[in-house]
Design goal:
70% of the residues lie in helices and 0% in strands. Helix 1 packs across helix 2 and helix 2 packs across helix 3.
Length: 172
């Protein structure tokens, strides 16, 4: 039979359930060897138990007992489930209310310990200086806004010309 590395690979595939019938036949031939070393005896026993179930001895009368149990189970009428008692329903209701109350208390305390939103502080003490900075900021925004609108100015002029031509065509 092949080398030990090949047998180890075949055994790993066998235990993973990915061997083919030919590979299992090679393993069977390997384990049937009478000169098998002690190292392989545990794998041989597992392989034989899984591969050849004829070697497994079942207790006397097992199939008769299984058949009786199955017949009792199949033939037994299905009983409806017993309704829970009033006390059990009361426990469930009280437990539900307790859990809801605990959840509310937990959410309350989580809300209490939340960090407050940062307060915006006034950065200027002199109102005239604040007005100058605000004016500069608005001028900067206006300048960039006008830059963004300049490509549309050409399109607006073309639309105006188109509208003039359409008006002339409609009058005649």
């Amino acid at each position: 039979m092949g080398d030990r590395k090949e047998i180890n690979e075949l055994l790993a595939a066998f235990y993973a359930g990915t061997t083919t019938r030919e590979e299992e036949a090679r393993l069977k031939a390997f384990f049937d060897d009478a000169d098998l070393s002690e190292r392989w005896h545990a794998d041989r026993d597992i392989f034989r138990a899984l591969y050849d179930p004829a070697d497994i001895v079942l207790p006397e009368g097992l199939s008769d007992r299984l058949e009786q149990v199955l017949n009792r189970y199949i033939g037994a009428p299905h009983r409806p489930r017993k309704q829970p008692s009033r006390i059990r329903r009361l426990y469930v209701a009280v437990g539900s209310v307790a859990v809801a109350a605990l959840l509310c208390v937990t959410l309350f305390f989580i809300g209490e310990h939340r960090q407050p939103a940062p307060v915006t502080a006034d950065t200027f003490t002199d109102p005239h200086e604040a007005e100058l900075v605000a004016t500069e900021a608005l001028a900067l925004v206006s300048m960039h806004l006008n830059k963004g609108l300049s490509p549309f100015e050409k399109a607006r002029k073309n639309m105006d010309k188109t509208n003039e031509v359409l008006e002339k065509l409609n009058l005649k």
